[in-house]
Amino acid sequence: MRLWTVQHRAVLDVLEGSGELVGDWARMMIGSYRPAYVEMVAEMARRGVGCAGRPPVWAWSGPDTRDDRVALTAELLLCPEAPEEYARYVIIDLEVPGELVVLSSYGRWNDYLDAVLAGGGSARMDWTIDPEEFERSAYAGVQACLPRLDGQWVLSVRPFEPSDEPDESGAEAGGLASPHGAAPAPAAGPQ
């Protein structure tokens, strides 16, 4: 299954050294997400994909299209504000065995996060994916969770560079997210 992920560039050293990246609860970007991640790990186990007690590695359905759809998604997730923040990350294009991938709706995941973190509704995750979610832009579509990232699954790696998407006013954003915007969810488990 073709997927892409955005990861800290240090992941490349991990993949070269040990051949795989696994999640680590101590390295989660946003610690308050842990209860939701625990539910994701439980759902993965229910689907026969074990994480060995670790958080999953996040990815996105589809290939790295090498265009602004991927870059904009990564920007909205990580909210980089300066060139050095972009330089910390890479976009990795993957071919992953389908039996190791758990797909879910990114929109429903954010609704669930809201319920878990802010009490904004039912704290039950709806694991269904609407067919049109597979057709949306990378950001609005389908997320993928993996028990690990194996170096043999890597098809290509490229720098994370700013998108050329205009901001809401129509001006070129240069890829820099508003410092007042919040990242909806981390792009990957541990970074």
Strand order of the largest sheet: 5-6-3-1-4-8
Strand percentage lies at 15-25%
Strand segment count = 8
| Helix and strand composition category | alpha+beta
Most strands sheet: 6 strands, antiparallel
Q: Roughly how many Å apart are the termini?
A: 22 Å
Radius of gyration: 16 Å
Question: H/E element string?
Answer: EHEHEHHEEHEEE
What is the overall shape? Answer: globular
The number of domains is: 1
Helix content: 25-40%
Please work out how many helical segments DSSP would assign.
Answer: 5
The unreliable regions are 169-191
Mean pLDDT: 81
Keywords:
single chain; 191 residues; alpha+beta; 6-stranded antiparallel β-sheet; 5 helices; 27% helix; disordered C terminus
Explain this structure to me?
The protein has 191 residues and is of the alpha+beta class. It has one domain (2-159). 27% of the residues lie in helices and 20% in strands. The chain is globular and about 40 Å long. 34% of the residues are buried. Mean pLDDT is 81; it is low at 169-191. Residues 158-191 are annotated as: Disordered. Residues 174-191 have a biased composition (Low complexity).
Describe the structure concisely for a colleague.
The chain has about 190 residues and is α+β, with helices and mostly antiparallel strands. It is about 25% helix and about 20% strand.
SSE arrangement:
Layout: E1 2-8, H1 10-18, E2 20-21, H2 34-46, E3 57-61, H3 68-78, H4 83-87, E4 89-95, E5 102-105, H5 106-118, E6 142-146, E7 149-150, E8 154-159
Antiparallel strand pairs: 1-3, 1-4, 2-7, 3-6, 4-8, 5-6
